[in-house]
Known about the structure:
141 residues; 2 domains; F1FO ATP Synthase; mainly alpha
Amino acid sequence: xxxxxxxxxxxxxxxxxxxxxxxxxxxxxxxxxxxxxxxxxxxxxxxxxxxxxxxxxxxxxxxxxxxxxxxxxxxxxxxxxxxxxxxxxxxxxxxxxxxxxxxxxxxxxxxxxxxxxxxxxxxxxxxxxxxxxxxxxxxxx
Length: 141
């Protein structure tokens, strides 16, 4: 597991270093450079994630054996994931709709910025409610 952590750290550092070097050269704006950077990042990311999956298979199998003794725990995990996921999707939709409307309203009247931020914050609160519910579900398992 330490090897995987070191590999992940190396991928992150090399990606940042590549971006800094290309930005320092000043010619990072071309499509060829961006495609090259994407190929390099994916070329490093996919093997590291494959290795992570392969190394975690024994722990996943062990967790599956534990849930076989308590089959209702699987439904609890499913409920926790659904509550967080659906709340996040709802929050994204709400923030997108309210944020774009707020931007248009603020461009016409800058004095209403504070009011529009409240509505955007209410949209973001939906995700937090879903996260709290999933934490409460996981605490009961």
